[in-house]
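Researcher: Here's a chain I'd like modeled. Treat it as a single chain, no partners, no ligands.
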Amino acid sequence: MKTIDVLIVVDVEGALAGTLSENVYLIDTNKYFGSGSEGQEELRTACLDGQVIQWRIQPVAVSNDVEITGFTGQIISENICNPEKVTALGETYWTSRVETQGKSKTYQYSVNVTADGKAMTFDPFLVVKAD
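Model: Modeled as a single isolated chain. Structure tokens:
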């Protein structure tokens, strides 16, 4: 199974002046595999039980700072994923294996971020299909 990469792009200035939900954009590497709502806050990443997902975050403007500080929600409370922070080759990202024990289900989760020092969250989905 291929690893799914999720890229989170944040307009930090817009988020600080308004809301994060209107200024965060997500895409993944599934192409036509079945993910939905790309380019929006509530990306629906289609994945298989046992697949690895990696999350990266970037600000739109290089002068801003944004980072993932953790994850909460169904994927954590139902022990579906336990994302861990990894730093390799000068890049930081979070990674986890999806483990639903053979269940097909949609899980909402929260990504906790700091944007120029301010804590914020948004809530995408994992859409898991069991083999």
